[in-house]
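Example (one chain per record):
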Amino acid sequence: MFETSTFDDPLVLASEIRRRWAFLETSSAAAVLRSVCPAEWEDITHFLKTFELNPAHWLKAGGNRGSIAKEIDEMFGERGWREVRVDLLTQGLLIGKNGVVLDRLPEVRQEGYLVDNFKGRVALDVEWNAKDGNLDRDMSAYRAWHEAGVISAAVLITQDRVALKGLAEEIWASHQETLAPEQRRSKLPIDLDTSTTTNLEKAALRVRRGVMGTCPLLVIAATRDTWNGQTYSST
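Predicted structure:
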């Protein structure tokens, strides 16, 4: 595994997109996606251009991960991405000197998991405030699929937890000022204090341990600049 930054190349990713998101990649993932999977890369860049973090969805009590992840999944679903389980089948063939197949060894099946979005040769998961153990599952699967020749690259969409926690507190405090004193609640409607959920920092720790092998992985994280600039509204 080697950490790269091809996403900083304006020929790969426009500066206005880079400004709105944080990125981390291995094995030149952004450049690989652009060159090898241009249709899928167009879908990804379209998402990066158009998605905005809406406080009405983001700060929704009891639905933080589900609301944001569902919104993102629907955006990719509209462009032909599918939620699928990826299984691997391995079979050994015994070949004679003349090239004739002499025997076939029993198939070995490696059961995968439901990846949020799959298209062409790209796997893409949305890990928004889920348990951080999901990252171990995701990255292990990406590496296996890449080594088996099933995917060219993988993408993880998550959040910059620290930056968004500060933003959420500011938005919520401003919203409280619009309420009558007896209606005000200082506590956020969602839990952004825990550090054991999926986020950019947790993904980086795993990436830098070398868990990806040679698999190109692009981690995309929402930041303050992904916010749509609107105030919170419960309606």
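Caption: The chain is about 35% helix and 20% strand.
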